[in-house]
Amino acid sequence: MPWLTQLADVAQRTGCPVVEVTGWRTRGHGPQPEVRGIVCHHTAGWADMHIVRDGWPGLDGPLSHFWLRRDGTIYVVAAGRCWHNAPSTSPDHDNSSSIGIEAENDGRAPWPAVQLAAFKALCAELCREFGLTAAAVKGHKEVNRQKVDPHSIDMTAFRAEVARLMKESPPWPPPRRPGSTS
């Protein structure tokens, strides 16, 4: 599989705000060999898209294909392979076979409804794009015994909502931002 240069178009189909991070089409640790799964994460911090893009000492970025801000804005970070899940307990959810979504959250804060709606919509559109079922969507905590993310999200209920969204005709109404009147 080549670089996943369709990711911005896929994200746009959610109806959520989308930001294409400069250089995303050529960012990655080589091309993405295949897509058989989606791994949902939380970042364990705030305003940390730069870490997802650039990494940290000892782990070069990109660390995920997407960064999902608390307000439901989807940032497209990389089109190539990302270091988001190793070691993996699933051959369908390792770095070479899955897409990673990092959602901005410190691992303790409640999830804003607008962010959760965007998270689910993005997973549904990615499943459509790559011919996956909702069962291919996993929490990091489900495919890596060392992880707890995404905190407090019942992944069975999350997948059920992704499956429901996949049956609808996109785009769904974009999630409402707090304080918006539309």
Rg computed from alpha carbons, rounded to a whole number of angstroms: 15 Å
Report the structural category. alpha/beta
Number of strands: 8
Strand content: 15-25%
**Oligomeric status:** single chain
Average pLDDT over all residues: 93
Strand order of the largest sheet: 1-6-5-7-2-8
User: Can you count the helices?
Assistant: 5
End-to-end Cα distance: 40 Å
> How would you sum up the major sheet?
6 strands, mixed
Helical content band:
25-40%
Element pattern in H and E: HEEHEEEEEHEHH
**Based on CA inertia axes, which overall geometry fits?**
globular
Low-confidence spans: 174-182
Your description of this structure?
By secondary structure, the protein is of the alpha/beta class. It contains five helices and eight strands. The chain has helices spanning 7-12, 49-54, 113-130, 140-143, 155-167; strands spanning 18-20, 37-42, 55-56, 59-60, 66-68, 74-76, 98-103, 137-139. The strands form two sheets. A six-stranded mixed beta sheet has the order 1-6-5-7-2-8. A two-stranded antiparallel ribbon has the order 3-4. Strand 5 and strand 6 form a beta hairpin. Helix 3 (113-130) packs across helix 5. The longest helix has 18 residues, at 113-130. The chain is globular and about 35 Å long.
